């Protein structure tokens, strides 16, 4: 699945109990459609995203950045202690493409330049936790 959106805050690197590093970030995706009355309805969906391949990518994933992600989505629903039903969409990212931006970006291992985008193409990983 591919999604394109803007980061809602800077990415953060977390370490799991198994000493693996994961980059977590949130993406907002805007969409619009016309309802039965012909009115335009704006809708924003939010995805919690994870990237397990390289923690170095967190340096370029800053609030407001426009990114295109390839990966898979998972949904989770639960009941909070207050009894309220909650749900969350998580996007398990395998490829990140950064679009546009006027800042100079330093390349790290795994980055290549193509046109005006920065592409991160991961090497296959055998031990991903999902």
What would you say about this model in short?
This is Single-stranded DNA-binding protein. Keywords: DNA-binding. With 130 residues, the chain is mainly β.
Please give a structural write-up:
17% of the residues are buried. Residues 102-130 have low confidence and may be disordered. The protein has no helices and 8 strands. A 5-stranded mixed beta barrel has the order 1-3-4-6-5. It has a single domain, classed as OB fold (Dihydrolipoamide Acetyltransferase, E2P), CATH 2.40.50.140. The chain has strands spanning 2-7, 12-15, 21-34, 40-51, 66-79, 85-99, 111-114, 117-120. The two termini are 16 Å apart. It is mainly beta.
Strand tally:
8
User: End-to-end span in angstroms?
Assistant: 16 Å
CATH class division? Mainly Beta
> Which overall shape is indicated by the principal axes computed on the Cα atoms?
globular
Q: Which sheet architecture does the biggest sheet show?
A: 5 strands, mixed, barrel
**Sequence of strands across the biggest β-sheet:** 1-3-4-6-5
How large is the share of residues in beta strands?
over 45%
**Average pLDDT over all residues:** 81
Put simply, the count of helices is 0
By CATH, the architecture is named Beta Barrel
Summarize the amount of helix as a percent range: under 10%
Q: Which value, in Å, is the CA radius of gyration?
A: 17 Å
Order of helices and strands: EEEEEEEE
Structural class: mainly beta
Count structural domains.
1
Low-pLDDT residue spans: 102-130
CATH level 3 topology: OB fold (Dihydrolipoamide Acetyltransferase, E2P)
CATH superfamily: Nucleic acid-binding proteins
């Amino acid at each position: 699945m591919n999604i394109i959106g803007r980061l809602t805050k800077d990415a953060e690197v977390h370490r799991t109990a198994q000493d693996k590093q994961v980059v977590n970030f949130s993406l907002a995706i805007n969409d619009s459609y016309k309802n039965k009355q012909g009115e335009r309805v704006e809708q924003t969906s939010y995805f919690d995203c994870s990237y397990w391949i390289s923690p170095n990518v967190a340096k370029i994933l800053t609030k407001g950045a426009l990114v295109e992600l390839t990966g898979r989505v998972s949904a989770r629903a639960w009941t909070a202690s207050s009894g309220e039903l909650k749900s969350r969409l998580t996007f398990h990212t395998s490829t990140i493409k950064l679009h546009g931006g006027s800042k100079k970006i330093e390349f790290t291992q795994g980055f290549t330049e193509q046109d005006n985008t920065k592409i991160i193409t991961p090497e296959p990983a055998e031990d991903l936790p999902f």
